[in-house]
Specification:
alpha/beta; Rossmann fold; binds adenosine-5'-triphosphate; binds magnesium ion
């Protein structure tokens, strides 16, 4: 891991269900890494996304494998199985605590889309997240960033925003596409699509 003069590594954390991963996630991750000079960004795959009414379609292992395929050739992006390996509901507070302990001196950056940034007050032990990480908000179509900064500041977050090209892509839409037999091409990295096809994910509703 890169040591910095006077400081530890700068680590980005992009958590998600990734059911499946798509270029919206990856564009957010690489642009946050670039804008904030992060050593690496971990795409942390939720084992049990406890806030979802309906569970993910794909298993944790399959979602992780598809993320790993998507980032395999991308410097500085890594698939993380931290939350899957821990078991139980995937609380970001636990994840940030684990990372803080395993990388002493690391500076943590929690990367979220604007839709998620607007819902942080519903998170488990959100105060611990606030203590442990700087929040990095990326714009997302359908979620307004304008009023967010003031709201987050009032809640006590250290916040930065990173502007990315608006990508109106969601895993929900991709699951619907796969179920209808419509293409995922260019919305999901090719290596990830190959894995999805090889294992036959998302196709069982076709
Ligand atoms: P779903 O439709 O199943 O909720 P999703 O596309 O929202 O899937 P998640 O795994 O829920 O993907 O999101 C993980 C993180 O990535 C969240 O912080 C979310 O805001 C962010 N994100 C997802 N898609 C985009 C996008 N197109 N642009 C910017 N951020 C995104
Ligand atoms: Mg989502």
């Amino acid at each position: 891991m890169t040591a910095r003069p006077g400081g530890g590594p700068r680590i980005g954390v992009l958590g998600g269900t990734f059911d499946p991963v798509h270029v919206g996630h990856l564009v957010a991750a690489v642009n946050a890494r670039h804008a904030l000079d992060l050593d690496r960004v971990l795409l942390v795959v939720a084992g049990q996304p406890w806030q979802r009414a309906a569970g993910p379609l794909a298993t944790p292992a399959d979602r992780l494998a598809v993320v790993a395929a998507a980032v395999a050739d991308q410097d500085g992006l890594e698939a993380s199985d931290l939350e899957i390996a821990r078991g139980g509901p995937s609380y970001t507070a636990d994840t940030l605590e684990t990372l803080g302990c395993s990388c002493p001196g690391a500076e943590l950056f929690l990367i979220v889309g604007a839709d998620v940034a607007d819902q942080l007050d519903t998170w488990e032990r959100v105060g611990a997240c606030r203590e442990l990480a700087t929040l990095v908000v990326v714009n997302r179509p359908g979620a307004s960033v304008g009023r967010l900064s003031a709201k987050l500041e009032a809640l006590g977050w250290r916040t930065m925003t990173v502007e990315i090209p608006a990508l109106d892509i969601s895993s929900t839409d991709l699951r619907a596409r796969a179920a209808d037999g419509r293409p995922l091409d260019f919305l999901v990295p090719e290596a990830a699509i190959r894995h999805i096809r090889r294992v036959g994910l998302y196709a069982d509703e076709r």
